[in-house]
Every structure is written in structure tokens, then in C-alpha cells.
Amino acid sequence: MFQKNRLHSAVIAATAAIMGSQAAHAEPKQIEEVTVTATKRAESAQDIPVAVQALGEENLENLNVSNFDDYIRHMPNVTAGGRGPGQSSIYIRGMATETIATQLSQANGTAPNVALYMDEAPVSIGGRNLDVYVTDIERVEVLKGPQGTLFGASSQAGTVRLITNKPKLNEFELGIDAGLATTKDGEMSDTLETVVNLPVIDDKLAVRVAAYQSNEGGYIDNVAGTYTPDADVNPVWEGLPVESATNEDLVEEDFNDASYQGARLGVKWAINDDWEALVQHTHQDLEADGVFDHDPENVGDLQVQRYFEDSLEDSFDLTSWTLEGRLAALDVVYTGAYLDREVEQSMDYTGYNDVGGYVDYYTCNTAGDTCYDPTKAYVGTIENTRTSHELRISTPQENALRFTGGAFYEDVEILDNGNFLYPSVADLGNHENYPRGWAPDTADDIPATVIDPNPRPAEVAFFNDITRTQDQLAFFGELSYDLTDQLTGTVGLRHYDMDVELVGSANSSFDTLWGEDTDEGGGDNLDQKWVEEGIDTPLNESDTITKFTLSYTPNSDVLLYATYSEGFRPPAYNRGGGNSNADGSITIPYTVSTDTVDNYEAGWKTSLADHSLQFNGSIYRVDWKDIQTAVFDPSVYFLFYLDNSLDAQINGIETDITWLPTDNLQIIGALSYNDTEITDVPESAVNVAPEGSELALSPALQMNLRARYDWTISSFDAYWQAGVQYSDDAWSSIVVQPNDRFKQDAYATVDASVGLQEMNWGVELYAENLTDERAELFINTLDGSKRTTTNRPRTMGVRVSYDF
């Protein structure tokens, strides 16, 4: 983030030449090539037949990108649905279905269909993106369309990769970046980032350290309110003596602040002329309070009413290692990684009173003459560990016949230990018909808990104690052959064998209400269920996916290509498989298979006008079948389940342009258009929108445009930059009942900045969301009440940087 890259150096050199000597024969400025590793080789983005968009280090700095939300909004044809830092899902090319409540989605939900990588390490998890702070990042790559042959599971719609800067031999670098910002009607924000590259042994050893701390001020208020269950909203309260809840102890302005703190250490060792090793470790703590979705309809602009403390602590350690070199004519790479992530979260769940089919039983005694505090909450811990290993070889790039391939293995474990707290349950525990809390039956052959074997506190009405594991072994390869000097064919294959397992239980503390034996009547012991129902465990899926590409280069400045590709994501269990809703009209399947994707794509990449104009694009059709869909349904005892619920087709086009009309001016723009349509709705447990409807979170039109002008003032290099981002309207969900399907409005945001730099020092003034637009990024009813995730209000700030 702090190092001047080649593009920056080119800008300064070109400006000096024009403003200084005004040499008559100076070469016109050209667009700098961006090197990516989308094909598992380091190649120019313009030379590979893959739809890849990259934000390099200079652009990340110019756009003031600091976290996940920042880089997503600058990528057309990429959207996200979520409810705050580290609580989002990524979608590409309109391939979106649902964003499920974070208290339900980890062990029980679908795997994402866009893979997130940090360098060579896969770090995806359902519903909780790894929100890495963008410090000392070389580039962010977005690979659009199925990338399953090279990047494996969850690369079904595409892959997002964060590529870090690596240690450099024989170079000393020091960078410091500090910032201060104010948000309209919100709190101040501040950042401090630093990076140092230390050569330790000449030509042999170097160390690179990056550290950061960012405090993002809040802008949503938790305002005073009183909540009373309403029979007009949920009929189960009809005739009951309801009690009210108040949030007076939690009232706070700007309560949704967030902080990122972390460091990354990298060590590079040049073993000899042919081999080098790299080890990196990243640690980050993300903390957030409050919520990042507001209730403009019922409470007010940037306001909510919450009755239990909302907080998030999301920490991860990622250690990765790479050994690369040459064996004869082969390039050999072995890379591995270990991710250890722990999330602790508490959130208000009082809105469940408005949707729960049996919520009166949890709040009132059986006689119905006494009801207690209606406040409800979720407090849980999610632990995710992931170990991955990949060994691959590549033949020389200059050969007419080229091969890249190898083997991949990963072991993923998700521990979901979540308690649903109802204070009324503790009060009911004093009633003779309601035992207090839950305790395991130690005589069971198969235990109901695998994470926490202890009795649950009296106020815990329900809990999840579920472990999900995923093991995968895959063999992959891509073979390219130059049929002529201008025509190249590529064939890619990946064979994978995957096991997914779900163990533990979802349980209730109401022994007498649900059955004398809690493990049988009070909940689902998943191990016992699979045995009794004859369900295979672990769930195994094995298949081979393919990719075929034909590329044509009529000259060195034009690349045309056509691709057919497939992708996949893991299958899943339903923890509530076999259960039915109250009238028996819905039976939940025990397992859900992977959905299938057939992607047909034609693209072009061009460098024109002496490399001062770059115009790329692609058109595509995606046939998406047996789509995994999740639903939160309070009418069913187990609330949350999955099914292969629909087929859909997406037809689209995406383009991007970079233009240098003068040596001082740069214009960058991108556009995407998607026509999404549900083509078939077979009978399933999930009630989705009818045939002909649009998919969720899939705006038809997205585009952005920005201009940057550089010039010299005395001894200073100066610049200004302005940009606009636009997103069309979109549906919030594909599920029509019991969830609500809302139309999210179109929006446009405007950013601008101006700056000066002299030698090693720089200062910038910037403004984001100049028009103070309230973007409807995601409308949800996941806690039982309608709320809208929005963008940060107008923010103005200053950044000061020093690079040595």
C-alpha cells in the first residue's frame, strides 16, 4: 500500500519529462501492464484468456480502499449481501440466492459459490467473509466465471484473491500512512499503518513486516423504545397478558463502531539460484459493536431499536508457506496454509417474537395466565480451522505445449456453538411444569454435544452444538497447445473427492414440553438421526469438472477467446432433515447435493492507440441448475434448512476501459449488465419466486467511472481524482414465503480526492459518498424485523503518507 509501483513511477517520469524539457520526441505514456496469477502462472492480465479484473497497489491507494466493502464496490459485476464487517457473502455475475442469518449459517448453511483466497490459501466460509484489512496488499484479483479446475470448491461463480506484497531481497523500505476522517452525523475515524522491508543477508534473506490499526466511527443510533408482542403481527399472542421490554440501558448514538488491528510477518529465503522459500503469518482482530443495518421505515434514518447488546469479535491467524523452484525444465511449487479463526458474537433476537410459531411457549406458562420478559438474544462462538496443501508443476511458458497441474488436499472444520437466550425461560424454570435449563444424558451411547458437554444456563431456550467437517482431495490440470502462431487451445480438468460430515445436536431446554428424554424429544442428535434413518455419513461427493478454451491473437495487441467452464461447491446436510411444518406440507430433505454450473463465454482484450487505450470485455451465458437455497422458516421446528430449489439462466456482458487521453489524464471505467431469470421451480421444501422472476442481489446494470489528473506545481507532484459508482435496483431474496422479497432501490455514489506529494512525503484530502446517498445494499428480515444494510454516510478525511 505504501510502495511506489511501476505505474506510479511512470506517472512521475512522464510528468517530469513534459513539464521540464518538453522534449519533442518524448514517448507517449502507456498503460502499465498488470501481472496476475489467475492461471497459476505470473502473466500479464492482457495475455490470458480469463476474465480477470485487478486493482493494483496504486489503484487501491488511489481509491482509499481499506476493507472488504471498499474493494467490492469498485468491482462491477460483483455484489455482496451482508450485515456488517465479516458478515457478508460475495456474488459474481448475478449468481446469488440468499444471505442467511449469521447465527444459523456456518455449520448448517450452504458453502459460498465465490471462493475467497488470501495469496494461495482458501479462506471461504458461508455467511462470514474473512474481512482482511487492506494494508501492504499488492493487488486484489477478481476472476469472473467458474474457476473450479484451478481453484476448486466454491469457485462456482468466480474467485476473489488478495495478493500480499512479499519480502524483497537487498532492498530497504519504510512506509507510514496515517489518516483522520469525519462522517456526517457520526463519529471520527482514524487509521495508522506501517510497513518495513528489511534485507537481512544479501541475496539470501529478507523480512517484511506490515502492521495496522483502524478505528471506524459509528453512524447508526440505537434509540429509546419499548417492545410489546403484538397479536396483529403474530397471532400466537392473541389473548395473552404480554409484558413489554425496554432498551433504556442500551440507548447510544453512533453505536456501530468497528476496529481492525493486525500485523503480517513475511520471511523470504533464497536457498540457491533455483529454489526459494517463503513463510508468512497474519494475525488480525476485528471488533464491532452495534448493527450495520438500520430501520428507516419504523424507527428513522440511520436508527434502530435493539434490546440486547450487539457485539462482534472476529480474530484469525493465517500461516502460509511456499517452496518454489525448478527441477530440470519444470517449475515446481508446493504451498500450504493453516487458518485458525474464532468469532464470538452476541445479537438481539427480540424480533423473533413477531415470527416464531411457538414463541408463546417459550415466554408464557402453560396455563397462559403469566408471560415474562419478551427479550431474546443469540450468543455464540464459531471456530473455523482450515489446513490446505497444494503441489503443482508447470512446463516452460515458451513451449508450444504447456501444462500446469498438480494435487490439492484440504481439511476444514467448523465448530458452531450458539445459545439462544430467552430470559423468560429462566422465569419459567421456577414453574413446576418447566425444568430449568438443559443437561446432557451421560448414559447416551452417542453424545448430544461435541463442543460443550456442560449443562446450559437456565435462560438458554435452544442451542446449537454442531461440528461440520469437510475433507477434499483433488487432482487438477490445464493443458495448452499452440495450434498455430495465433491460435491456442486449452483443456482443463479437476477430479475431486469430498466428504462432508455433520455431528452434534440442536436442542431445547423444554424437557416436558418436547419430551421426557431431551436427546430424543427435546432436539435432534444428528449422529443418532443419521444412524436411525440410514443416511450415509460422511456425505461423499466425487466428480470431474472441465474447462475448454480457444484463444486467438490476430496481433500482439488483441486477444479473442471462447470458453466453456464448470464449477462446484460442497454438498450439505440439513440438521432438521425429516421434520415437517405444522400442517405437514413441507418435509425437509436430509441432504442437499451440489448445484451445477455450465458457463459459456466469449471475450476480448485489446490494447489500442499505442497502448494508451485498453478495452476488455466478455459476453456469457450461465445455466445454473439444482441451486442450493437456504431459508429461515419459523413455522418449522428447526427454523433453518436447505434444498435444491430452482434452476436459473443468466445472460450478461461486462466491459472495462482504461484510457490515457493525455500524459496527465487517466480515465478508468467498467460496466456490467445481467439478465437473470428463474427457469424452473421443481417441488421442494423452499418456496421461491416463480418462473420468470429475477434472481436476488443481482442488479441488471452496474458501472463505475473515474478520472485522475496529475500535474506539477513547483516541486510538488499534484493530482485530483473523481469517481462515480452506480448500481441498478435488485431483489433482496428469491424466497417469497415465509421470508419477504423486497425490491432494493438503485443508487449512485460519488467520491473525490486531491493530493500533493514531494519526494517521500504525501498528503491527500478525500471525500466519499459526497451526495450522502443511502444505498440499499441488502434488505433483510433475518431477526424477524425488516432492516436495511446501507453504506457509510458522507465521509471526509485527510491522509498523510511517508515512503522511504
Describe the 3D structure.
The protein is mostly beta strands and 804 residues long. It has one domain: Maltoporin, Chain A (Beta Barrel). 7% of the residues lie in helices and 50% in strands. It has a 22-stranded antiparallel barrel. The protein has a 5-stranded mixed beta sheet with strand order 3-8-9-6-7. A 3-stranded antiparallel beta sheet has the order 18-46-45, with no helix packed on it. Mean pLDDT is 89; it is low at 1-26 and 511-521.
What is the topology?
Elements: H1 6-19, E1 35-36, E2 43-44, E3 52-56, H2 57-62, H3 68-73, E4 78-82, E5 88-92, E6 114-118, E7 121-122, E8 137-144, H4 148-151, E9 158-164, E10 173-183, E11 188-201, E12 205-216, E13 221-222, E14 226-227, E15 245-246, E16 258-270, E17 276-289, E18 293-294, E19 303-304, E20 311-327, E21 330-348, H5 359-363, E22 377-394, E23 401-421, H6 423-428, E24 460-482, E25 487-508, H7 511-514, H8 518-522, E26 523-525, H9 526-533, E27 539-555, E28 558-567, E29 572-573, E30 591-592, E31 596-608, E32 613-625, E33 628-632, E34 640-644, E35 647-659, E36 665-680, E37 687-688, E38 701-713, E39 716-727, E40 730-731, E41 735-737, E42 743-744, E43 747-758, E44 761-768, E45 778-780, E46 787-789, E47 795-803
Parallel strand pairs: 6-9, 13-19
Antiparallel strand pairs: 1-2, 3-8, 4-5, 6-7, 8-9, 10-11, 10-47, 11-12, 12-16, 14-15, 16-17, 17-20, 18-46, 20-21, 21-22, 22-23, 23-24, 24-25, 25-26, 25-27, 27-28, 28-31, 29-30, 31-32, 32-35, 33-34, 35-36, 36-38, 37-41, 38-39, 39-43, 40-42, 43-44, 44-47, 45-46
Structural class: mainly beta
CATH overall fold name: Maltoporin, Chain A
The helicity comes to under 10%
Give the C-alpha Rg: 27 Å
The general outline is globular
Show unreliable segments.
1-26, 511-521
CATH architecture: Beta Barrel
Any idea what the CATH superfamily is called?
TonB-dependent receptor, beta-barrel domain
Task: Count every beta strand, where a strand is a DSSP E run of 2 or more residues.
Answer: 47
Percent strand: over 45%
Q: Provide the residue-averaged pLDDT.
A: 89
SS element count, helices:
9
